[in-house]
Amino acid sequence: MTTLYLIRHARSTWNAERRMQGWADPPLDDVGQRQAQALAERLKDEAFHAIYSSPLARARQTAQAIAAYHNLPIHFDERLRERNLGEWTGLTGSEADERFPEVRSNGDWRIDGPPGGEGQAEVTARAAAAFADILAAHPDDATAVAVVTHGGTLGAYLTHLLGLPPGSPVHFAFGNTAIARVRVQNGHVYLLGLGDDWHATAR
After folding, report:
1. Other CB atoms closer than 10 Å to residue 192's CB: what's the count?
2. Which positions are catalytic?
3. pTM of the entire predicted model
4. Which domains does the chain have, with CATH numbers?
């Protein structure tokens, strides 16, 4: 039985500007640093067996805040990065609407992805492979693992884990430092919590 703590990173400078980040690497802003600290304090008494993270700064800095309360290294995995947003990287939503109206208005853009970016099937495949390796590395009973990554990556993985196709109309939204808890046991999946961010909103 493995319990995954699926955590979205704290607020970055580009989150504050409502810019699409993808594989770009802006750091946490002041609010994000406070969010990361509140998250770390919330999780300080959890008995984590391992901490994994996307290597992008916003996730890495969030994971480092958590790790400061635990005597554990952080395992970085490139497959945990956010969706590659291609030509949309750095744009606001309104700027992308203006420059790529045919893509933004044509149903769910996630399925095929932005110009030069990743489609949903690609994001799902790499996220599923990364988490499969994490679960395989921690098969023991009562194991808890923290994974700090990105909203698009987490949504794609949850869709996969629950057996929904990549083009499913079901979407999972994660606020900054929101936690989903998932228990995987004998091939069964138990969703224990979703969108838990009271530690951030309480400040």
Report:
1. 13
2. 9, 82
3. 0.94
4. 2-201 (3.40.50.1240)
